[in-house]
From TrEMBL:
Species of the source: Rufibacter sediminis
Residue numbers of the full-length protein present here: 65 to 333 of 337
Residue stretches making up the DAHP synthetase I/KDSA domain: 29-268
Key word Manganese present: no
Keywords per UniProt: Transferase
Protein name per its UniProtKB record: 3-deoxy-7-phosphoheptulonate synthase
Superkingdom, natural source: Bacteria
GO MF annotation list: 3-deoxy-7-phosphoheptulonate synthase activity
EC id: 2.5.1.54
């Protein structure tokens, strides 16, 4: 059959657990929090973010060094040198990093310095990239395509899983609709639907999902109540100075408040 099969809950009833060692797991029944800037910018920014995460017991830092920008004139990221700095600084504090891989040729050089390969919304159906990530022994966070259906996301997941990489997480990050009042439309519906269809952890990105700083927190809390296994979002010491996505980025004060609320809401489930 040409249906997706291996990522289906019909094939594997038990939810997938991704073990990072040191007692750190992404799994159903626990709330995973991943936070950090849209783009890695410099050593000071990484250091300040690590301090913020450690103070709040957050074990994953996100941050891009290869950035998929709509305009070629926008900041494109620090590249591999930035990744090495990011990885080394985080490792010294026991923090795992989540960072986007944009093309097949980046996988091998990135691998020693990456804990989670993020596949961005513009690459969800880059099937050659998915095939190659299927051969990698590192977890993958697969984002939903900008105009992708839930089934298309699951077919893309099947590429990676069937290639042999079962350390896979899905990410709802908002889809393009006719609505222009927000950057994207966070599809809360996708959360219970994905949780029923697949055994893979479902992580939600409210930052790209709505694109407006003030509304990131309510969307994160709603996603948790809808059944999300984790939240990934953007935070920066000075959001207004961020190299990318500042308008949807939380200050550390806002981030800390949201972390506390997310944990409270998760306990209500
Ligand atoms: C990002 O995480 O900064 C990003 C570019 O996300 P997406 O691929 O969902 O747009
Ligand atoms: Mn971003």
């Amino acid at each position: 059959s040409d249906d997706y099969r291996l990522v289906s809950r019909k094939w594997k009833v038990n939810p997938t657990v991704i073990d990072f060692g040191d007692g750190l797991r992404v799994q159903e029944g626990e709330l995973t929090i991943m936070a950090g800037p849209c783009s890695i910018e410099n050593e000071d920014q990484i250091e300040k973010t690590i301090q913020h995460l450690v103070a709040n017991n957050v074990r994953f830092m996100r941050g891009g060094v290869f950035k998929p920008r709509s305009s070629p004139y926008s900041f494109r990221g620090l590249g591999l040198e930035g990744l090495k700095l990011f990885y080394d600084m985080c490792r010294a504090h026991g923090i795992k990093i989540v960072t986007e891989v944009m093309q097949v040729s980046q996988i091998a050089p990135m691998e020693p310095y990456t804990d989670v390969f993020q596949v961005g919304a513009r690459n969800t159906q880059n099937f050659n990239l998915l095939d190659e990530l299927g051969k990698v022994d590192k977890p993958v966070l697969l984002k939903r395509g900008i105009s992708g259906t839930i089934d298309e996301l699951l077919y893309s997941a099947e590429y990676i899983f069937s290639g042999g990489n079962e350390k896979l997480m899905l990410c709802e990050r908002g889809i393009r609709t006719y609505e222009t009042a927000s950057r994207n439309t966070l599809d809360l519906n996708a959360i219970p639907i994905l949780k029923e269809k697949t055994h893979l952890p479902v992580i939600v990105d409210p930052s790209h999902g709505i694109g407006i700083r003030e509304y990131v927190e309510p969307m994160a809390l709603a996603a948790i109540m809808a059944g999300a296994d984790g939240i990934i979002y953007e935070t920066h010491e000075k959001p207004e100075e961020a190299a990318s996505d500042g308008a949807q980025t939380l200050s550390f004060t806002e981030s800390e408040r949201m972390i506390k609320k997310m944990r409270k809401v998760f306990d209500l489930r």
